[in-house]
C-alpha cells in the first residue's frame, strides 16, 4: 500500500491522504464468499439507539474470513490480494487442493502464487502458515491467535498488528501483545506466522467530516455543549470546565479514564504484565 496526496482544491482535501491500492491484484470479490451487510445504525430490535454515533455509511459486502484456519494438512495457493472495506488489513483469496476457496487475513510478505499450510503438527516456520503456538520458536512474529483452542483467531487481526512469542510455560505459551501486555494463552491455540499487512493504514488522514460519514460514523457532541437536561456536564454561560468532582457519562456513571475491567475476571490470572499507560 502507498499513501496518495491530492491537489489541495479545498481545505478538506488539503489535509487528507488516501490509499492508492497499488498492491491489489483483484478488484471484484469472490461471489461465493460475500453477503450484504445490513445496516444496524446503532439501534436495537425495537428501533431505539443503543450505540450512539453510528449510522449511514456506504453500502458494502461482508467478506467471509477464515479465522479458524482449519483446513489442516491441505496445501493452499494464494490467488489474489484484495481490499476489504470492513477492515484495515488486506485479504488474500486462497484455493485449496480439495477445491475449497477461502479468504484469509494477508500477512506482510505474502505474494500471489505462494503456498500456505495449516496443521496441528509442526510444519515449516513460513509466513502464512498456521500451527499450534507450542511449535513456534521464541521471537517469531505471529498474528490471528486463538484465545481458546478451536474457537478461531481473536488476537492481532488489525492492520500492522503482530504478537511476539516469548516461550512456553507448562500448558501455556507466553506472548507479548500489540499493546505491550504480556499474557498467557493455551499452547494448543493456533497462530499464523507473520505480521498483518497494510502497515501504512495509520498514516491515512481522513481530512473531512464527509469521509467519516461514509464510514458510518456520526457526529459526537461534547457534554459541555449540551443543556443540563441532556448531560451532567451541560449548562452554564459560555465555555467552562465540567464543574464536577469527576467526569460523568450521559447517564451519570464515571467516565474518562475510569478502569472498567472487573477485578474478579477469570482471565486476570493469565496476564503477567499489564499494558503500559
TrEMBL record:
Composition bias, Basic residues: 259-277
Entry similarity comment: Belongs to the universal ribosomal protein uL2 family.
Record's subunit section: Part of the 50S ribosomal subunit. Forms a bridge to the 30S subunit in the 70S ribosome.
GO CC terms, sorted: large ribosomal subunit
Lineage: Bacteria, Candidatus Falkowiibacteriota
UniProt record, GO biological process: cytoplasmic translation
Pfam families on file: Ribosomal_L2_C, Ribosomal_L2_N
Function: One of the primary rRNA binding proteins. Required for association of the 30S and 50S subunits to form the 70S ribosome, for tRNA binding and peptide bond formation. It has been suggested to have peptidyltransferase activity; this is somewhat controversial. Makes several contacts with the 16S rRNA in the 70S ribosome.
Ranges for domain Large ribosomal subunit protein uL2 RNA-binding: 42-118
Record domain Large ribosomal subunit protein uL2 C-terminal: where: 125-254
Region annotated Disordered, chain positions: 223-277
Native species: Candidatus Falkowbacteria bacterium GW2011_GWA2_41_14
Keywords: Ribonucleoprotein, Ribosomal protein, RNA-binding, rRNA-binding
Molecular functions (GO terms): rRNA binding; structural constituent of ribosome; transferase activity
Name assigned to this protein: Large ribosomal subunit protein uL2
